[in-house]
Amino acid sequence: MKVIRTLPNDNLKNLWNSYCNFILDRNPSEKINRNRSEIWKDKFFVQLVKLVLPAGALTLLASLFIGERNVNISTASTDIAAFVLIVCIVLSKGLSIRTKKIIGMAILVTFSLIKMVTLSSLMLGTIYLLVFSVIATLLFNKRAAYLSVVINALICITFTIMQMEGFPMHKVNITNSDISNRWALFTLNIIFVNLVIVSVILYIVDGFERTIEKAERLSTKLQLEISEKIAREKLLKESTTHYKSLFFFNPFPILIYEPSSLRVLNVNKAAISRYGYTKQEFMGMTVNTLANCELDEFRDRLQDDHAHQMDTHTDKHGKKIMADIHVSNIKLNGTWVRLAIVRDITAETEYISTIARKRKKMREIAYMQSHVIRTPLSQILGITQLLKAGPMEALDFELSISHLINSAEELDLVVTDIIKQTE
Hints:
Elements: H1 2-26, H2 36-70, H3 73-90, H4 97-118, H5 122-139, H6 142-162, H7 180-248, E1 254-257, E2 264-267, H8 269-275, H9 279-283, H10 295-301, E3 306-314, E4 320-332, E5 335-344, H11 346-372, H12 374-389, H13 394-422
Antiparallel strand pairs: 1-2, 1-5, 3-4, 4-5
């Protein structure tokens, strides 16, 4: 039973939604280079059309029924013509919403004038004129709103004058009263009420437009802040990814530790590979353990905000590591910590030591060449000169040969020593 009762409601709802979508399709609002106030007025016009067309259709049926019974064909014809014209205009895709609003206002004024004459009632006509001013105030700007008041005033004043004796319309008696002065007073009150209504609506609309502008500025500012925040978050994310890559994939061992307790907070892959400890083992130790010193001693070595230290570390297997350490303060998750970048200079230090030893040997060789080797070489040169000088006694000759052999052996020993040092 519940399902059967809800079916008509669903059908009516679907029908109404289809009708609303049809009206929206026939009255698209242009949003390019327009502020929110103008867009809102277009939406109000479309909403007004949604309500006016079905209400107008029902009113038209009632008008036709009453007109047929009272044989008042002119009134019914006017209502049909006005309704059909409005429907054709609002459903036309070739006209812009602004053009439709202007034509609709013109039809409403014309309809008011026709009602005044065909129904012989200024009262009913002025009601339509008041509706004209209210709608014009809501759909157009302030100038158009006051213009509608002026149009209403001119119409009422014109009809008031034409009702005076001596004018042809006096015989129509559309005031249903012989007292023209009473209608003149009524006209003044209508103009006053019209002006008050328009002024109040304008005041409300101005406040509404200021609210819309403020909301638009706030929305623009908020969108800008959101865009900036998204850009900052994106940049921060990229920076975070970049610095994480620099940390985890850096070829140098990097350790992050707590400044007071020296407890290791994080290490990169290079530190794990170089020192031989696992990440869990690093997390359970203090950084001074690597330097084989006490906590206070390690703090004294690297107490500056940006410190540099050459130190000797020990890996898990007890092997010595010559370390060039750069330590600085960084903020990690809102907390200040210390970041230590360690450069293993063991091979470099050994290479420098080797070069130093070789330089020392070269200096020793140079000294031997310039001093030690000169002595036997000078002796050999001297003996050679004596032998070339001429004949000498046998004893002197043998003695010279003996000195020559000794000097040659001494030179051979020096050369052999130099060869050994260069190996």
